[in-house]
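INFO batch 0412 | record 1 of 1 | parsing
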Amino acid sequence: MGFFGKMRRWSIALFRVFGIQLEVHATFALLLAYVGYACWLEAGLRGMLWGFGFVGLVFVCVVLHELGHSLTAMHYGIRVPRILLLPIGGMAQFDSIPRQPGREFAIAIAGPAVNFLLIAVLLPVFGWPHYPEALGIPERLSEIPATLIATNLAMGVFNLLPAFPMDGGRMLRALLATKRDYLEATKWAARSGQVIAALGGAVGLATGQYSLAVLFGFIIYGAEMEYQFTRRSDLLAGLTVGDVARRDYLALPPEAPVVAAWALLRQAVPQDILLLDHGRVVGIVTRDRLAAAVRHRRDDDSLALHAETHFAELQAETTLADASTGSLRSLQTLFPVYASGQLVGVLDALHLEETVRLIRRLPREA
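INFO prediction complete | emitting tokens
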């Protein structure tokens, strides 16, 4: 399952804006608890309420920032299903990232541009804020404009750092992609971002700013995830599920005993076993479940008692790229593959990349 999919497991839907679902992650409660407790200790109930208001103010700016990305992407015909708010910021989910450098650059810069636009609107009315007061939590309504200016300035500048997968990193990839292969551009942008993030994390640890160190740690992880996703997408491009489907699957009827499956498996390459009923897969017995049944001396049980009956199926004509962003993100490892209603093989997700490399005659990665 992809990173965004994992995050969504604990997300709460709020409302829609411009057709985009706004969601907040459950861990956001930890941020509110931390801010509320710290402000309570300093200024009691009044301080806690101002702290919550400050968090809300910051995340209004975050949402506007993400809408800058999202609306620009939608202008280019890219669907944006949702924006997810996390304690460390926001993430807009795009159906695809354009590989045209100009479009990716425009989408990336649109977020910080919103922050700087807000500053440009506020400055003529309220002037430059006085520091360091503007960096703290406002305690009066008159301090809110200064806080807004400081927040948007920090957000805009920080996101322009060339640390992939942040906005500056995506802009760097777009610029590199004008001269280099897209995957190579992604790799260079990701590695440069990880170096910058490692340095920033070290500074955070050395100065006791642990939240900053955590943020840079997230950037390191995110950069690697983005590079691996791009690498995998390039590897799978142009192939269909049918191209990589294996025909040497093992199958037995649902009523067959555990001992029969064990005997069959001992004579073949280790794999899960399909349960077939009139040519249709009705269950999958994983190796772990079969081994557990043998350990507990359930040899005479029918395989149906130990089968997974809720599983995804794939169509042979589906592109591997589509399958990898859909069904292949689940925990399932063996997928029945059908063509015109007939079972034609299985897709082994555990060895998918190795199979693709064999088809493309590519060397195994070190």
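INFO post-check: The first helix runs from residue 3 to 8.
INFO record closed
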